[in-house]
Amino acid sequence: PLIFFGGTDSCRLCSVFNRLIFGTLYPAYSSYKAVKSKDVREYVKWMMYWIIFALFTTAEVITDIFLCWLPFYYELKIAFVVWLLSPYTKGSSVLYRKFVHPTLSSKEKDIDEYLSQAKDKSYDTLVHFGRKGLNVAATAAVMAAAKGQGVLSDRLRSFSMQDLSSFQTEDEPKSTSSITTQPASGQHRTRAVMRNKSETGYSKGKCTRQREQQKNINL
């Protein structure tokens, strides 16, 4: 047969099926019945089983890595789960009363202190990382707003420079035309003044001539 983690595929699948059906689902239904009937003995019995099963599952993670090459490893796991569940052997209650309960009762204070410290540390780390997350989010928002304002100011500057350049190009012909038209208007004004002066001088000279002719006639 094909060797897989130190055991055959059939034994491995049988072990998983046994743990799923007889080690998890059946004890869960029996615990439901104990809670529903409010039988203290059954309730304590299945509570002891779940404690032992939790320890077994934790140890199984390590043993599956380092001890899976042993012969009959999965068969031993199946036999152990059956021994825990059997009402004749009462393996879970035996393990709990002889080993688990004395160990936990002797180290209960240390475990409680460790758990309280872990809760405090976890709360502090959660608050610390939460503050860091808020700071990072705030800085990101500020940077985004600053970048948006910079882009907007650059666009406004480009628009203003374009407008100024267009205004300058529009004003240049007007200024040149005004510069060219101003001397022409000045020339017209000087010519009109000279004409007026010449006409007044001519009219004055004519009047004086007429007066002299009239005097000569009288004489």
TrEMBL record:
The keyword Nucleotide-binding does not apply. It comes from the Eukaryota. Belongs to the DP1 family. It is a multi-pass membrane protein. Residues 175-187 have a biased composition (Polar residues). GO terms for biological process: endoplasmic reticulum tubular network organization. Pfam families: TB2_DP1_HVA22. It is found in: Membrane. This is Receptor expression-enhancing protein. The chain crosses the membrane at residues 46-72. Residues 166-219 are annotated as: Disordered. Signal peptide: none annotated. Residues 209-219 have a biased composition (Basic and acidic residues). GO terms for molecular function: microtubule binding. Keywords: Membrane, Transmembrane, Transmembrane helix. The keyword Nucleus does not apply. One of its GO terms (cellular component) is endoplasmic reticulum membrane. It comes from Electrophorus voltai.
